[in-house]
Write a structure and sequence with these properties.
It is built from 4 helices and no strands. The protein is mainly alpha-helical. It has a single domain, classed as Serine Threonine Protein Phosphatase 5, Tetratricopeptide repeat. The protein starts with a helix and ends in a 9-residue tail after the last helix.
């Protein structure tokens, strides 16, 4: 496992606890870019996105999801 990926994963965990979720997302994204097979980082990234989306009005959540997909070429075509 990539040492830098682990460092970013742990950084994401630390950011997530006090809820600066945008920073946690950035750290998890960096971890999975460094090591695409880093299951825990992918899991926590998904969980963080889910926590954010659950707190939003459904229309706002849909807009946020579309913005995320538009800015991440790996998610292209995954919009509903």
């Amino acid at each position: 496992m990539d040492d830098d990926a682990h460092r970013f994963y742990h950084q994401g965990v630390e950011y997530w606890r006090p809820q600066p979720w945008d920073q946690a997302i950035r750290a998890y994204l960096q971890a999975v870019r460094l090591d695409p097979r880093f299951v825990e980082a992918w899991t926590n990234l998904g969980y963080t996105y889910r926590k954010i989306l659950r707190r939003l009005d459904p229309r706002m959540a849909d807009r946020l999801l579309r913005a995320i997909q538009a800015n991440d070429p790996d998610l292209e075509g995954s919009a509903h």
